[in-house]
Amino acid sequence: MTAFVIQRPPDGIAALPLVFDSPHSGTVFPDGFSTPAAKSELKTAWDAHVEDLWSNAVDEGATLIAATFPRVVVDANRAPDDIDPALLDRPWPSRWGTLNPTRYSARGMGLLRRDILPGQPTHHGLLDPLTVKSWIDTLHAPYHAALDSTIKAFRSKHGNVWHIDCHSMKSAGNAMNIDAGKPRPDIVLGDLDGTSAAPDFTQYVKSAFLAAGFTVSVNDPYKGGYLVQRFGRPEQGLHSLQIEINRALYLDESTAEKSPDYPAFKSALSAIGASIAAFVRSNMELA
């Protein structure tokens, strides 16, 4: 299976050094993947339709990269070595390097997802490292290679790149989240406490959402994950910002089906995407 899809600006639209990526909106499971979870449970981990919500940014000159595989197989927003060895049925072979589980793995949400919902396992049992390595090599690695090469090409040409890592979030955290039981704002922006993007970029995006009537939080409860950490180097002209969208704005959260508000919300995001493109265009001219 193909690990990702790329949407580029149509003919006649100049490509901006603006890259959107959606690592958790994939729905295609690799052959042989098995889970005891019901489809309704799997959908709770799905960033439903996020790649579509931002797709109109391509008409403004942005490039959009989206994973085709679900995060419950391997999480593209985690490091490839962020693996809890307790989820494996034998030791990780040393020839593949060492494992470095982080706080995400400690919560059961590292590269491999322990539970689909609190107390409900994602997998039938422990996983064979050979299977996990195949997922890394055929899904996680190609996705990152595509994003990496796209960002590097724009940086080589323009000197600066703006990267938006696109996600959705439940309207309230559950027991697996750091904000369990707390209602969430409409939008959460994460720039790793100001270290993954220039402050003026984060503030510009925040202002665009506020002007559209949305409530916005910055770095609370989400500061940004592995993708923002990997690509955010503002001192080198690489600006990376994570955007989390409250699913209640556009979904029936109980079914993951589009709500009647979907078209209006997508239209609002399209306007914000156009505004972000204008920011990038302006900063290209100033560089």
Automatic annotation (TrEMBL):
UniProt cross-references to Gene3D superfamilies, sorted A to Z: Zn-dependent exopeptidases (3.40.630.40)
Superkingdom assignment: Bacteria
InterPro entries reported for this sequence: N-FG_amidohydro
Name of the protein in its database record: N-formylglutamate amidohydrolase
Organism: Hyphobacterium marinum
Higher taxonomy: Bacteria, Pseudomonadati, Pseudomonadota, Alphaproteobacteria, Maricaulales
